[in-house]
Amino acid sequence: MEPEKGKQVVAVYLRYFLSPSETFVYRQLIGISSVFEPIVLTAFPCNLDLYPVDRLYAKGKGLVGRVYTRLQRMATGRYTSITVRQRNYWKEKLAENRVGLIHAHFGHFGLDMLEIAASLGIPLLVTFHGFDASKLLRDPKYTRELKDLFDYAHVITVSENMAERLAPYGAKPSKLSVHYIGVPVEDFEFVERRPLGEKIKAGEKVEFAQVSNFVEKKGHRYTVEAFARHLKEYPKHRLTFAGDGPFRSEIESLCVKYGIEGNVRFTGRVVKGQVSELMRDADVFLHHSVTTKDGDMEGIPTVIMEAMSTGLVVVSTNHSGIPELIDDGVEGYLVDERDVDGYVRVLARLVNGDPGMPRKAREKIERKFNMSTQNLALQRIYKKVIHGPVD
Known about the structure:
The protein is of the alpha/beta class. The chain has helices at 23-32, 63-76, 84-96, 107-120, 140-152, 160-166, 196-201, 220-231, 248-257, 272-281, 302-309, 322-325, 340-349, 357-368, 371-387; strands at residues 8-13, 16-17, 36-42, 44-45, 56-58, 99-105, 124-128, 154-157, 176-178, 207-211, 238-242, 264-268, 284-286, 313-317, 333-335. The model has no long low-confidence stretch (mean pLDDT 94). The protein has a 7-stranded parallel sheet, with helices on both faces. Helices cover 41% and strands 17% of the residues. Helix 11 (302-309) crosses helix 14.
């Protein structure tokens, strides 16, 4: 298929295309399509009914290929590798489609594309999202290969904090852009709610919510501990956990241990429409992000942006890039990671909170984290990387 006349073709690469937790990739792909013509390269296509694309080129690994790359990594000490068949197939498709830029999401997937891009002389852009700029930095094989990646590729980080973390590993300021992913504000409309302080002072029920997978870095345990103490003074308040994951049963048991299971509900996994409905019915959004034992960190969780877009009062943490999203006491509240005492104090502050905070939160999203605006910024980054120079 010939590319649309006048549009530069760009290839978007993820090893897995596409997990529902990575909807932001699809939103970007659609967002740049007015100016560029995207194709997708992947090893493992999935959920294409949710994320349809016109041109997708998939080449996975068979048993022989998996054994080959495992042995290759052992022999060479490399962090990642692809098979000869994958390399040749994607090189063929890149040349066939006259691709002018490869955009790989996640640092380790960028390593998959490095040799291919360099051999064809195609510019490579790599977006780092979270654990690829935190947990993986503890792996010397990975960081050794990052030096070659940073020499060739242009890098995007989703926060200033992340850019600072990558600098010691060779990320060059002249070839690095901080680009906030953003959210589609039109999908998360502002909700006029009764002022939170009024509801609390009147002794009415207040709805708290958290939407996230049940994994360590989402900090559910600290939310439960703080909320259990909060309920001693405000027994009518309710908390909804939406999502699923390996820690769910542990968190459910913790609620029973504290005797608060009657005030906490678990919805299980939710889809986009359900998230919007849950946010519309809530008063406060909780998201206690923490750094895990193995060093994993967030970027800036888009779900917090979505909550702020609807005017929810957000309580989160001084973690990774979140302070770039929330000025404590202005658009929401921040506490230190795992600081349950501080968490409880902030929940108590809600009764005297700024009634203008919901509007300030919405305005912050519209101004700095609006996906339409950020997709235009991404288009400019594409043009800069394609036409250079970036040094």
